[in-house]
Structure formats: C-alpha cells, structure tokens
Amino acid sequence: MSSHAAVRAAIGDNAPYDVMRVRQDFPILSRTVHDKPGRAGKPLVYLDSAASAQKPRQVIDAMKRFLEEDYANVHRGVHFLSQRSTDLYEATRDKAAAFLNAPSREHIVFTRNATEAFNLVAQSWGRANLKAGDAVLISGMEHHANIVPWQLLRDQIGIALKVVPVLDDGSLDMDAYADLLTDDVKLVAITHASNVLGTINPAKEIARLAHARGKTVLFDGSQAAVHGPVDVRAIDADFYIFTGHKLYGPTGIGVLYGRKEILDRMPPYQGGGDMISSVSFEETVYREAPYRFEAGTPPIIEGVGLGAAIDYVTALGMDAIHAHEQRLLAHAMDRLKDVDGLRVLGTAPAKAAIISFTVEGIHPHDIGTLLDRAGVAVRVGRHCAEPLMDRFGVGATARASFGLYNTEAEVETLVEAVKATKSFFG
Amino acid sequence: MFDDLRDLYQEVILDHGRNPRNFGRPDSFNRTAKGDNPMCGDKIAVYLTLAPDGSIQDAHFDGRGCAISQASASLMTEILKGKSQAEAEALFGHFHDMCTKDDHEHTDHGPVDEEAFEKLQVLSGVREFPMRVKCATLAWHAMNAALHGEEKTSTE
Ligand SMILES: Cc1ncc(COP(=O)(O)O)c(C=O)c1O
C-alpha cells in the first residue's frame, strides 16, 4: 500500500483523494507516446480504462515479490512455500468476497476473465437448470460476453434468448422489462453498467422484479464494479461477474460470485485436478463449491495481483473513486457539448464515466488515429456490442472512458484534440 | 498537432474521402461483393460491370468507412475502369505490397500499369500505421472477391 493509500485507509474512504499523488502510483502514466529522435512525444492521456485499466505499482510489486519470495503451486503441497502460496491466493478470495460484500469466500469462484464466468454459468448452471423452450432474458446493451455463451447454449439445448430494449437516452426500458418476465424466462442476465453507454442499470429493481417471479438473476459487473461500490447482498444478485484487469489488476483472472445454495447444486464446468476429492476410473467425487469449478492449476500469480488491486481501490475507497469519476464525467459532458456535430450515445441519468461519441462527417477510426497523435488513447469501433451499435444506427463510435487516475486537465486535452481533429478534416 | 499525419492523410485522400467518386449502387452491374472490417465496423460493397471479354467496364462502391477506406475505394473505382482482370489483379498485388511491405520485399505480380499505380502511392502512408492497413485494402479485397465470385445481376 502506498503511504498515501495508507493514510487514506486511516482517515476513511469518503474524502476526495489527491489525484496527482495517486497518479504517481501508476508508472505508465508518466510516459510519453510517439517520441521521435530529437523530439519528445506527447504525454499519455489514457482514456481507455473501460477496455483495460493501468496497474499501480502496488499490484506490480505484489506480483514480483510473490514470484521472488513465496511462489509455489497451491492446494497441493505440504511444504512451506506451497502453504504460503495457498494462503496468499486464498486471501484474495476473502478480499473479493469483502469487495462485493459477499457472505464468505465460498461464494467466490475464480475464472480466467469475465468471459469465462459467463461460459461457466451457461454451461454448468444453464445445462442443469434449463431445457428446450426456456428463455434467458438479456438486454440490448450487453457485451458479446453476455450474448454469445447463451447463443451457444441455445444451439445446444434449444433455449430461447429474449432481449430487453434500450431507450433513446441509453437507459433500459424497465416497462418492457417487466412485461418480458414471462413464465418461460428462467434467468435474467443483464449488465450492471454498459461498457458503451455508461448506463448504470437499476440492479436492485431488476432483481426484485425477477425474484418476485421466481427467476434467477445474473449481473455483468465488469464495468460497474470498477466505477463504484457494489453490494451483492443489497442488490440481491444470484450471480455477479467482474474481471480483474479492468479493476487495476492483472489479466488472466476474473471473479464469479454465486449464491452458495446455487453454486452447491451446480455440476462442474471443466474436469481435472484440484476440483475433485477422489478419483477412480469408475467414479469421481467432486469437491465442494467454489473449488469444484476451478479445474487445474489456477492463475496463482494473477490471483495475488488481484488481491493487491482490491486492497488498492479499497484503500482509496470505491465511494471516493465514484465521486472523482463523476466529477470528471460531468466536466467532460459539459465541455463536449460545445463541439459542433458531436453526439454522445448514452445520456441516462445514472451513468458511469464512459463517453461514447460520434462526430458528424468524421469516422471514429480517423478520430482515434488523430487523438492518438495528440497522446489521447481512446477506443474506437463496436466495443464488442454490435447489436447496440445497430440500435443507435452507428457502425462504430469513439469511446473515452475514465479511471480513478484521470484529471480535469486530461478532459481538456481530449476536448482540444477533438476540436483539432475537426479542423483537420474540416 | 497533427503534422506527421499529413503523410497518411494527404490532400488527395481527404478530398476522395469527402467526395468519393463512383459512390452508390449503380443501376446495372454484373459482379458484386461485400467487404467487412469487424475491427472498426466498416462495411462496403463493390459493384463491377464486366465486358464480354472480361475487362472491367465500370466500377462503383457504396457503404461507410473511415477516410482511408473511402478514399481507397474511390481511387480504386477510378483506376479500374478499362482494366483487364489480369491488370486489376496485378494492381491489387502491388498495392497490397505497398501497404504492408518494405520496398525490397515486394514480389512480382505481373506487369502493372505504372500510371495507375502512381495514383495509388498517396496511400503508401498506411505502411506506418499497421492498424490502418485493412482500411486501405478493404475495397480491393471486395473487388477481388467480386471478380472471382459468382455472376450477380442487378435487381433494378
Ligand atoms: C460489460 C463487459 N462485459 C464483459 C467484458 C469481458 O471482459 P473480459 O474480456 O475480461 O472477459 C467486458 C470487457 O471487455 C465488458 O466491458
């Protein structure tokens, strides 16, 4: 933990933090891009955290220290390092549980990323609980990770996929949602926050309506979990998914929260070592949840890194991060209003600091190339949400997404660069 | 701010990007193919009218894309008119090399119309932008698919 983070942990996490000091925790943020011999490049303005966030030194160091001092395989050795390694890896399960306010570590399944978590639920829970004619209800703003696994299952066992429409401002059509909760729907699988529109969906209300009709509820927290506090018990989620690399942690590890009674009744997802209690050629007895779902040597180093990332954001305070990003969002939305021909997709009242936009007459791909030259990293394209692009009648957008380390000065750089892009093509 | 982007976005490209030539689905054509770049969401269609001897009488395109892909498609349709199939393929081969390889790595794609190829040099800047090569070659891939594809008659 940085001294700054330690102080914050001591004084409580609602106070705003000093973003310039926080930036010093992220080594990559001090680099320049497009340097040429004899000419310094542009300072990096990293506005692509929704694709993947940068890592603080605390995460980098924790992984390095672990490799240098404590590394061994987990769950299978009696020796000193194996025990150390297991303790550190399992400590992240506790941290992830606390981060989501889950009752205990038994609710936390580690996966490779969010995508694998969806596939796990589809193939394990889905095959055990759904049959031909049943439906899964998703929304029009889902990432492909929460679409394609259900389509695979549809083609395997004949379920149907239903879609809650998105309103013009990018909010979920809650009236349509209530009407779509028909008897055939067994699972509601909806994103807690959209990676394109930024819309934060009313998770508690979604779960309340679904549970009143006896349905199981899954939330994609890949974006929501990094922009503000999440409480799976307050929301009353049955499943909740997030991915480590967007939470300032390493790639290669994701988290699936599941209600214990549900996890306990789910069959294994993959077979192999670590997920069994006994194996003979005739019969194999599987371990209890969550270990039953973690076949083979897990992402141990990444697990330790994720633990450090959770410590880091917790010390800053998810409330403080949320407040900081909301200030940036308000500022950016306000400044972008002045740019002629700029259209923001997603203006719902509850919105995470993600701004997808188009500029009249300039293709997003060209915008991306020009902004990049100004040092501004944004994502352009369909953002793995092609149906949503179609819904808004755009082939692609440019997307600026903000993280805990972005500043108002960076918002200014973005706005100036967009204006300069316009005059370049003007 | 964007000085070193002038190599990529030369005036000719900006012009063709803004006012693409031969844009729109023509009333008659006998070959067509679509090109799709899932990375950036670009979709274009190329429409060719082949003469009985197989040469390209007319070429059009439509669809949306970035300035690079629109300009490349526009230039392509201008250049292809009157070319034989072999000449079109040679141009594609040379153009593809120009976008993706250093000069000494270029391979022989047969005799090429030097004047036509000269016009395509404005797109050589993409070689420094690997992420943009697909934009420049999208229309050419579609053209190639149209040449080798099934004959399609216009519905109009
Ligand atoms: C909303 C949402 N869901 C799911 C994912 C998939 O995450 P991952 O690629 O880490 O599995 C992403 C990120 O790409 C996302 O933004």
List the helices and strands and how they pair.
The complex is a heterodimer of chains A (426) and B (156).
Chain A: H1 3-11, H2 19-23, E1 32-33, E2 42-43, E3 45-46, H3 57-70, H4 80-100, E4 108-111, H5 114-129, E5 135-139, H6 148-157, E6 160-164, H7 174-180, E7 185-191, H8 203-212, E8 216-220, H9 224-227, H10 232-235, E9 239-243, E10 254-258, H11 260-264, E11 276-279, E12 284-286, H12 300-316, H13 318-336, E13 342-345, E14 354-359, H14 364-373, E15 376-377, E16 379-381, H15 386-391, E17 397-401, H16 408-425
Parallel strand pairs in A: 3-15, 5-6, 5-7, 7-8, 8-9
Antiparallel strand pairs in A: 1-2, 4-10, 9-10, 11-12, 13-14, 14-17, 16-17
Chain B: H1 11-18, E1 31-37, E2 42-50, E3 56-64, H2 67-80, H3 85-100, H4 114-120, H5 133-148
Antiparallel strand pairs in B: 1-2, 2-3
The complex binds pyridoxal-5'-phosphate.
Give short descriptive properties of this protein.
heterodimer, A: 426 residues, alpha/beta, Aspartate Aminotransferase, domain 1, Aspartate Aminotransferase, domain 2, 2 domains, seven-stranded mixed β-sheet, four-stranded antiparallel β-sheet, 17 strands, B: 156 residues, Sufe protein. Chain: A, 5 helices, 16% strand, binds pyridoxal-5'-phosphate
